[in-house]
């Protein structure tokens, strides 16, 4: 099988998507990447004269997605790997954050990824080949104060990914939910949507959390280039995982959460069992 692949990556203007595009191009793959401005399109295509092809697409532009994917498949396909990477973080206390901000968070991080996936699956299924990487987050398993909407979106994408991996396995299509810890990207900087504070009761508990996240921006432990190299290993594997954590922070936080969940299940086992029959 040809080890040179064609990847379709959403959100290649910065961060993890940009790092993955660069590493994939350096490894000899072809990359079709989505961006949201003409300047980002030019910057992306400058990465390779013949193997970097940019498409302007907002993943919430739902009426365009099917035709954009059909055009890509016709002119640059077959696409081997879809990477649903485009997304952003909303930060705000649940009680303070308007419903519209939750809707938008899910529109981008969940419905956007679902719509792009739906557009590609028929091609992958017909070819009996394909790999879908959904960039979720450690926030798809653990939670922290101030990111309820973000965690909602990433828990949803984890659940969809896991279900889809079972539905598509008979067709030789793999689905991997990639859950990064904190990485040095624009996520906590220009991309983050922060709801202004309005309820003084949360000052003591939340202001330090917001401040710490702002101060950590640009100093996160995770290196996007190394994340990209890890994702390329997953893409090359004949038996890729359904879930992959990236980063030692994600590893310890998720492991701790799963251990706590297991002991809580044990502690309440008798009550849990009591409802049968
Ligand atoms: P980033 O540097 O802010 O990159 C986000 C990318 O998504 C940008 O290319 C952005 O395009 C694009 N994007 C945002 N909204 C979009 C939309 N509606 N339609 C199309 N593209 C859109 O942040 P990142 O950390 O690389 O984020 C990539 C993914 O990793 C996200 O899903 C994020 O939730 C996830 N993640 C990140 C971390 C982390 O610590 N960095 C941890 C866990 C998960 P523009 O340039 O046009 O805004």
UniProtKB/TrEMBL annotation:
GO molecular function: oxidoreductase activity
Source taxon at top rank: Bacteria
Keywords from the named record: Oxidoreductase
PROSITE patterns tied to this protein: ADH_SHORT (PS00061)
InterPro entries, alphabetized: NAD(P)-bd_dom_sf, Sc_DH/Rdtase_CS, SDR_fam, SDR_oxidoreductase
Pfam (any one): adh_short
Family of this protein: Belongs to the short-chain dehydrogenases/reductases (SDR) family.
Protein name, per record: SDR family NAD(P)-dependent oxidoreductase
Organism: Pseudomonas karstica
């Amino acid at each position: 099988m040809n080890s040179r692949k064609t990847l379709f990556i959403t959100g290649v203007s910065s961060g993890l998507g940009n790092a993955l595009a660069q590493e994939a191009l350096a490894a000899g793959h072809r990359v079709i990447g989505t961006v949201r401005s003409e300047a980002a399109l030019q910057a992306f295509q400058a990465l390779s004269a013949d193997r970097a092809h940019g498409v302007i697409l907002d993943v919430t532009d739902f009426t365009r997605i099917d035709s954009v994917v059909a055009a890509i498949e016709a002119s640059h396909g077959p696409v081997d790997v879809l990477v649903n990477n485009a997304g952003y973080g909303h930060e705000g206390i649940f009680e303070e954050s308007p419903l519209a901000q939750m809707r938008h968070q899910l529109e981008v991080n969940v419905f956007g990824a679902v719509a792009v996936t739906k557009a590609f699956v028929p091609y992958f299924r017909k070819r009996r080949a394909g790999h879908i990487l959904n960039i979720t987050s450690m926030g798809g398993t653990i939670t922290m104060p101030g990111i309820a909407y973000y965690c909602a979106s990433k828990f949803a994408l984890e659940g969809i990914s896991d279900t889809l991996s079972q539905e598509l396995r008979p067709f030789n299509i793999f689905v991997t939910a990639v859950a990064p810890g904190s990485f040095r990207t624009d996520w906590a900087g220009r991309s983050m949507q922060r709801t202004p504070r309005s309820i003084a009761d949360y000052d003591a508990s939340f202001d330090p959390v917001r401040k710490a996240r702002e101060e950590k921006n640009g100093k996160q432990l995770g290196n996007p280039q190394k994340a990209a190299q890890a994702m390329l290993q997953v893409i090359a594997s004949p038996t890729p995982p359904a879930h992959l954590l990236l980063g030692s922070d994600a590893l310890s936080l998720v492991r701790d959460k799963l251990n706590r969940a297991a002991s809580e299940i044990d502690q309440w086992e008798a009550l849990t069992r009591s409802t049968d029959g």
